């Protein structure tokens, strides 16, 4: 359920960009981010850096498209969103609070969070997501600057990168459990 909630705004954004305007796609995605934040608050969980940052990215870009440049290409809009999400991920790493940590701490018990490999696993998973964001940016750059590239190729790159990171998020804790035998199966978000 956690991975679904994390990815819901991005999946919705990608689908909406295929069928409606960038402005609507951005504002609806910002609304979905706010709904996810509302669900977390209702459940007594913290407001996540990624969710709050994405509200800002989607809403600010939506306002820019609505008020300044309504003709901004869909590829440029997707590129800007991906750059914004990459910036959130990198900022979380720079301040030594990887965005994955907030999700993980709400999923594991206190003992698991104190294990020596816990923080390392969190950083590795955050870097996997950061790599996925870089691949999504590369796909968007390809769509913008290489004429004749079919639309589906950018979508495939984004889908593969995002789903690979989601799979890695669930696989890696299991791998660590098998290799080291110390972390429970639900040591990180999305693993139970």
Strand segment tally: 0
Largest sheet: none
- Please count the helical segments: 8
Secondary-structure content class: mainly alpha
Task: Please provide the ordered H/E string of secondary-structure elements.
Answer: HHHHHHHH
Spatial separation of the terminal alpha carbons: 9 Å
- What helical percentage do the residues reach? over 70%
Question: What percent strand?
Answer: under 5%
Q: Give the overall average pLDDT.
A: 90
The low-pLDDT segments are none
Tell me, briefly, the overall form: globular
Q: What integer value in Å does the Rg equal?
A: 17 Å
Write a structural description.
By secondary structure, the chain is mostly helical. Helix 1 (2-19) runs antiparallel to helix 2, helix 2 (22-42) packs antiparallel against helix 3 (49-67) and helix 4 runs antiparallel to helix 7. It contains 8 helices and no strands.
């Amino acid at each position: 359920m956690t991975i679904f909630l994390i990815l819901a705004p991005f999946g919705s954004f990608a689908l909406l960009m295929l069928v409606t305007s960038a402005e609507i796609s951005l504002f609806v995605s910002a609304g979905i981010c706010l709904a996810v934040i509302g669900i977390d608050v209702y459940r007594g969980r913290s407001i996540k850096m990624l969710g709050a940052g994405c509200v800002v990215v989607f809403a600010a870009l939506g306002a820019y498209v609505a008020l300044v440049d309504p003709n901004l290409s869909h590829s440029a809009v997707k590129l800007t969103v991906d750059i914004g999400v990459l910036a959130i991920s990198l900022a979380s790493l720079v301040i030594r609070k990887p965005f994955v940590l907030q999700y993980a701490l709400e999923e594991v018990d206190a003992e698991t969070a104190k294990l020596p490999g816990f923080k390392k696993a969190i950083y590795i998973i955050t870097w996997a997501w950061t790599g996925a964001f870089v691949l999504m940016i590369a796909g968007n750059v390809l769509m913008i600057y290489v004429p004749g590239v079919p639309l589906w190729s950018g979508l495939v790159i984004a889908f593969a990168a995002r789903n690979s990171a989601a799979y890695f998020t669930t696989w890696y804790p299991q791998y660590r459990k098998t290799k080291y035998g110390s972390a429970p199966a639900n040591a990180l978000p999305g693993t139970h």
